[in-house]
Amino acid sequence: MDIPPPEDPLLQYLTSALLHHGHRAKAARMTSLTLLHIHAFTRAPPLPILREAIMAAAPAVRCMSHKHGSKNVAKPIALGEKQRVRTAVQMIIKASEKKNGKTIAERLAREMIAVVQGDSRALEERETIHRFAMVNRGNTLLR
After folding, report:
1. Mean pLDDT throughout 102-114?
2. Looking at the domain assignment, is residue 115 inside a domain?
3. How many domains are contained in the chain?
C-alpha cells in the first residue's frame, strides 16, 4: 500500500475536521486509520477513493437567509472550492456517525466507500441542498 505524503492538503483538512480539544496527533491517527480501513475494505489505493468521495459529496451551492421586507428569503449562493470541500467533509463526518463500526475511523471509511458507491446520507443531504437552491433560484434577483 502506498502511504500518501504527509503534506497532502486534503488529508490535513480531514485531520483538522476530526480535531477535538487540540489533540492533533490523535486526529492524524484517526485519518491514517481511516485510510487503512478504506484499503482493507476495498483492496484499492485509499487516497483516490477519499478524494472521489469528498468531491462526490461536495455541494455546488448553499442558501443564505436574509430579510426582504418582513419575510425571510433563502438566496442560493455558489460555493468556492474550499467551501465545497469543507461542507463535504462535515457532511461525511456527520453521516458517518450513523454507520455501524467500533471506531470513528472505521465508520468514516465505511461512509467514504458508501459515498463512492452512491448510497450515502451525505449524498442525500447534498441533493436536498441542491433541490432547495433550485426552488429558491428566483430569489437571486432580489437585492
Report:
1. 96
2. yes
3. 1
Residue 139 pLDDT class (50, 70, 90 cuts) = confident
Q: Which sign does the torsion angle of CA 89, 38, 97, 124 carry?
A: positive
Dist CA 14 CA 8 (whole Å): 10
Three-class SS string for the chain? CCCCCCCCHHHHHHHHHHCCCCCHHHHHHHHHHHHHHHHHHHCCCHHHHHHHHHHHHCCCEEEEEEEECCEEEEEEEECCHHHHHHHHHHHHHHHHCCCCCCCHHHHHHHHHHHHHHCCCHHHHHHHHHHHHHHHCHHHHHCC
CATH number of the CATH domain containing 25: 1.10.455.10
